[in-house]
Specification:
- This protein is α/β, with parallel strands linked by helices and 303 residues long.
- It is 39% helix and 17% strand.
- Strands 1-10-7-6-5-2-3-4 form an 8-stranded parallel sheet, sandwiched between helices.
- Helix 5 crosses helix 7.
- The protein is globular.
- 43% of the residues are buried.
């Protein structure tokens, strides 16, 4: 089931312009998925109430629906008439007191149950590398348990596990612009980050698959030291990296866990990716250097 996808938006063997409900459409990946899916699907965006404005300007939607995916009552009937559901729903920055279990697991489960009730033919879930097994990292663990629920459901499914987004690495660039990059571990662990537009194109093509898991990365597998080096180059700053030993990470996590679930969740994820192997098959085309150059053109380097 696990294979290397290619960037091919063609969806073979399906009716012309199948209808897709896209949950999380207003997020970083969701905004790129709208045009990628709209090439050969009729796309309806499912967004939180009040977050419609950024999508209205795209002009490529067949429709828009708003609901709180954490509230199953607000989802009743939301999937009726759709051929497929694509969900990118998950916490990026914790707010409103919601946990990873509330959003990454339960909200997606609410949507899945409604899709099953409505007779939707396909359910595609955007997960993360490492969610194939239980994890001490709350965000990854919540995704793992939803993957398990999806695979046990009555609906046909596709799971996409990206290594990470280029946008996730902007904090490294921000540290480089300030003059010092801090990393956990020795910086030699690897990640295969991908541009969100490349990932959106991959996802569009994967809707043709059945009971399929795709692990997806960008065109280069990079160490964290190399990521820092490229950020310093893009920022035109002298390179200075401080490597923090893993015991500092572990001690910090133990200290913050009883007091702040949100900080613990975010901090544990950063520690996980910087001290472990989160590489993936190299699929994307846009390079990290190209992403950095374009980002700095739009947001000039801070002095």
């Amino acid at each position: 089931m696990d294979g290397k996808p290619t960037i091919d938006p063609a969806v073979s063997g399906r009716d012309p312009n199948p209808s897709v409900l896209l949950a999380g459409a207003s997020g970083t990946l969701g905004r790129k998925l709208v045009p990628a899916l709209a090439t050969n699907h009729e796309v309806t965006a499912l967004v939180r109430p009040g977050s419609e404005a950024p999508l209205e300007a795209l002009g490529q939607l067949a429709g828009m629906r708003s609901a709180q995916v954490t509230d199953p009552d607000s989802l009743v009937g939301i999937c009726d008439g759709f051929d497929a559901v694509v969900t990118t729903v998950g916490i990026t920055r914790q707010r409103d007191g919601l946990t990873y279990e509330d959003v990454d697991f339960q909200a997606n489960l609410n949507l899945l149950r409604e899709a099953e009730r409505a007779g939707v033919g396909k359910f595609l879930y955007v997960s993360v590398v490492g969610a194939d097994k239980p994890s001490r990292v709350p965000g990854i663990n919540a995704k793992h348990w939803f993957e398990q629920a999806l695979q046990a459901s009555s609906i046909d499914w596709v799971i996409v596990r990206p290594s990470g987004f280029f946008t996730d690495l902007l904090e490294v660039l921000a540290m480089a612009q300030r003059g010092t990059v801090f990393q956990f571990g020795d910086g030699n662990n690897v990640i295969t980050p991908i541009d969100v537009a490349d990932l959106a194109t991959v996802i569009s093509g994967l809707l043709a698959e059945s009971r399929h898991i795709a692990t997806v990365g960008g065109p280069e597998t990079l160490t964290w030291n190399e990521i820092a080096r490229r950020c310093f180059t893009a920022a035109e700053k002298r390179e200075r990296v401080v490597h923090l030993p893993k015991w500092i990470l572990n001690a910090s996590l133990q200290a913050m866990r009883p007091f702040s679930k949100s900080r613990y969740g975010a901090f544990s994820f950063v520690g996980h990716v910087q001290t472990g192997d989160t590489s993936a098959p190299e699929v994307g085309t846009r390079t990290f250097d190209e992403f950095l150059a374009d980002h700095i053109k739009q947001a000039p380097v801070r002095a």
